[in-house]
Amino acid sequence: MNILLLGSGGREHAFAWKIVNSQNCTKLFVAPGNAGTSAIAENVALSINDFDAITAFVLEKEINMVVVGPEEPLVRGIVDHFQNNPLTANIPIIGPSQEGARMEGSKDFSKQFMERHGIPTAVSATFTKETLEEGLNYLEAQAIPVVLKADGLAAGKGVLICQSHQEAKESLKGMLVDGMFGEASSKVVVEQFLDGIELSVFVATDGKSYKILPEAKDYKRIGEADTGLNTGGMGAVSPVPFADDAFMQKVEERVVIPTVKGLEKDNIRYTGFLFIGLMNIGGDPYVIEYNVRMGDPETQAVLPRIKSDFTDLLHAMGTMQLDKYEIELQPFTTTTVVMVAGGYPGSYPKGDVITGLASLSTPSNKSLVFHAGTSQDNSGDVVTNGGRVLAVTGIGDDVESALSNAYQTVSSISWNKHYFRKDIGLDILKLIK
Known about the structure:
Elements: E1 2-7, H1 10-20, E2 27-32, H2 35-38, E3 42-43, H3 51-60, E4 65-68, H4 72-76, H5 78-83, E5 93-94, H6 98-105, H7 107-116, E6 124-128, H8 132-140, E7 146-150, E8 159-162, H9 165-176, E9 187-192, E10 197-205, E11 210-212, E12 217-218, E13 221-223, E14 227-230, E15 235-238, H10 245-265, E16 272-281, E17 284-291, H11 298-302, H12 310-318, E18 333-340, E19 367-371, E20 374-376, E21 382-384, E22 388-396, H13 399-410, H14 426-432
Parallel strand pairs: 1-2, 1-4, 2-3, 4-5
Antiparallel strand pairs: 6-9, 7-8, 7-9, 10-11, 10-16, 12-15, 13-14, 15-18, 16-17, 18-22, 19-22, 20-21
Helix pairs in contact: 6-7, 8-9
Pfam families: GARS_A, GARS_C, GARS_N
Enzyme class: ligase
InterPro entries: ATP-grasp, ATP_grasp_subdomain_1, PreATP-grasp_dom_sf, PRibGlycinamid_synth_ATP-grasp, PRibGlycinamide_synth, PRibGlycinamide_synth_C-dom, PRibGlycinamide_synth_C_sf, PRibGlycinamide_synth_N
């Protein structure tokens, strides 16, 4: 197959790495891609939101399957755009319909979905600028800490955990009145704080059948010991030791099955990945959020653990044949450490030359380097081009060895004022011991 992959992050580099290793991939194009994808596929200068240009490219290059990495084009309706065009309607496109993408595009929509289908989640209420006073009164009656979530897309940063009623009220005003997260916070979900251990569960579905992929635990805060600002993700570990068979059975019965059946019952077309952010509270799963694509950086930890052909998985999803696909996993552990530009998640420089990558150009059985915010300058050097620059995945027999391999590779890579957390996975090590 000729395949087009949309996106430019670490998730997309991991996708590309798995896709090109399949005997069923003839040619892979990545739009727009990064310095990592350019080494294994052909990057194409297309905007992920220019649906007409993408359609023209798909027809010109006789693309047999389109894989959508990030959430924004899904929320904007790229799947509907393809399926409503007679020339592209029969080309498998991996991602949910625009209505399905509202599971991530609107926190309020997803909360209503969970309540409607009996899926365990935190108690919540939604407010707008017009109902601000009601929201302030509601906050006064809530236990502290309390969670405020921007309803729309906010690049993984639209969630505030407030430690006092005063902070919560000021934050609600800031989100609704001052546009703290822009249009994304024109509506805010106020949610009960769930105290437990967080993990991410990934599901592939064709709208009827589903396959549960390896789970992961990610680390959102910029600072060690989970302090500081939220980021798009600073690291991940897979598998998660506390996600044993008994817990995962509860996840499947109480969350995965009701979600897939709920989408079908609501007549929502959903072909693609479903990322379920969960909280383990005393051995019971509660849904924090849905995302309508694979996570980043969790993908960089999850995909190396999939032994079966990933391109076959994508095609089975896109052609409604997922029930015939058998997923096979690797027995090892993976840990991902994200290297970011100095200043991230605030302002940061771009264009710094990254050193140490040349010796790592061939993937090893101990570590993998996935590019995210990278590009090549005119001299051919790989330079920084984003906040999260690289994701280094260590592979080992256990968490300890995987972490050792990841950090050993991280230590050989450098650029001006780069930063990474040194405590990824340490909480899991303590849990195990």
